[in-house]
Amino acid sequence: MLALWLVALVGLGGAVGGIGSAFTDSTDLPDSESSTAYALLAQAGADPGDDATSTGNVVWQTDGVPVTDPAVVTQVQDVLTQIAATPGVESVVSPYDAAGAAQVSADGTIAYATVTVTEDAEVEQITELADSLDSNTLLAVTGGSAFDPGFSAGGPAEVIGVLCALVILLLVFRSVWAAVLPIVTGVAGVGVAALVVLLGSNVIDLPSYSLSMGSLVGLGVGIDYALFIVNRHRKALLSGLPLRESIAQAVDTSGRAVVFAGATVVVALLGMTVLDIGILTGMALGAAVTVGFTVLSALTLLPALLAVLGNRVLGRRQRRALAAGEPVTEPGGGLWTRWATAVQRRPAILGVVAAALVVLLAAPALSIRLGTADASSDPAGSDTHEYHQAMAGGFGPGFDAPLLLVGQTPDDVSRAAFTTLAGQLSSVEDVASVSAPPPAAGQEIGVITVTPASTAQAEETADLVTTLREDVVPAAEDGTGLQVYVGGSTASGIDFAQALTSKLPVYLAIIAVLGFVLLALAFRSVLVPLIGAVTNLLSIAAGLGLVTAVFQFGWGSALFGVGSAAPVEPFVSVMVVGIVFGLSMDYQVFLVSRMHEEWTHTCDHGRAVRVGMAETGRVIATAAVIMACVFAAFGFSGERIIAELGVGMGAAVLVDAFLVRLVLVPAVMHRVGAGTWWYPRWAERITPRVSIEGPSATPAEDPTVPELETAGQR
């Protein structure tokens, strides 16, 4: 088995080295107003979106002299000539030429040149040439899509997360090998999955974020899945079971729970396909593949490593005590036994307190606003922020948020109405400027460019788009054949956020129903999956609430190196919903499977909940802290989307484990009583049996009768 994994790593690595990857970050938005506007532009042969080229700006600002000063002009023109001669540069539009006359600010201290480059352009060389303009009286900086470095997968985040997980495992297990095994297993699964995703990008459309998304989710769940199996194996060894039987039992019990938990995460991820947004589907596929390989690693690679290591997964004291025939227990068990007893004694009080805390953390989510952050919120001192400040100072905050009003003008009446509309737009609130070349005779498509007075991410700009679409444009179209569509990158971002928001309830319903069915199959209960589904929603809300507070309200976003307050990225809401739902189901499965195992043996509900909580509390808490550390490490990646996901999912996991699974769920189960395990007899007859606890946990007789008798006595 070890050889097979080594061959897989080497073989896939060689294939990636020879074939490479082909990621694509294009976002298709069918049936949106902005996509219709772009389609009309393409029809007229004026589509601004050219995948083969991109444009950026070189902006410079003078101090004490105008940008038209002869010395400044000479210095800048020389650099622009060198930029134009750089390989991959298609054109340079200078403000000192007639074509770029509008590229000088009103006060004459800021100007910019537009640079169009191909995909293979040497952008770094252009940046170095622009930097050569810096002097005591002249400051230059580059910006725009051509100079966007994009997101590079990998980096220190994964290493930091793994190191934190290792430290926690060492503290819990008191054994180096037991601590290293989950790390090795998780990293191996993520590594093979990453190679598969790289190769898969040549076959299907996958965004560049797929690798980071897979690592973000895969490292957390991979380490946790291995942790549950190693923990069960150690307990079996300490009970005196021989090595091979101990491994088999761990895989046949905790391994089943790992398969089931992994399936719930994969289902939640693949449910994103219903949103019908290519880039999200690609990210979900990448993450689902990674989770699948981490499960495979936990079921194949981990048992092989356990067999090689033998009793070395135990601490030295434990090995000595076991050899001497002395009783050995895991450290920390008493704490969770006392806590489980406390929850059983005070379920109402503790349950209400836990629920109140979760609701408090979730409250900011009521004010969540989805949108794409622009460079105005980037960290102060960064190149992108300095570029935005310079351009905004010379050409207004909305310089990079132009709205394109694309009109169909089939006749003279509609062309006249379109011209009238262009004249009225300057008086609309939050409009800074309007550019509208008059439509030529016989021209059936016209374009008006509206520059907002606010930044692309500002709520005022979103309100402007709404005002244009719902008030201004319909009034201009009334009684004519004119049809106007509001497009542009800002409008596309708004349409994208609205598309996600409108489909989110359907997505939630689908994964909630699927999760309910899976848990009902596993535990043959109605209330257990219902409690799981409802409490999962609470954990999701808490995660989104903290993301809103930190990144949208700005209560700590600077700590994560992503700048100031900005709207929550549209991707984040969907990814947090899907991934946290799956991870919450994981903890529900591990917690309730042990309770169900005890229930089938004793039919004592109070004991089943208490024992299940006491025996899984330590490992669930450890797994949650490890996963939160991995997620939090990604929070410091410096990339806003990844940081929001890391913080949101890390916080949600901690809330889910410590407030929901280890307080609220057992408190509710204690209050409901043995009726928690009720399952209709008609459903019992038609439902296939799925045992998470293994064959040994299957009761000899139908537990429905004693559970109903117990409920009646209660």
From TrEMBL:
The keyword Cell membrane applies. Residues 692-714 are annotated as: Disordered. It is a multi-pass membrane protein. This is Membrane protein. Pfam families: MMPL. It is found in: Cell membrane. InterPro entries: MMPL_dom, Mycobact_MmpL, SSD. Belongs to the resistance-nodulation-cell division (RND) (TC 2.A.6) family. MmpL subfamily. Keywords: Cell membrane, Membrane, Transmembrane, Transmembrane helix. It comes from the Bacteria.
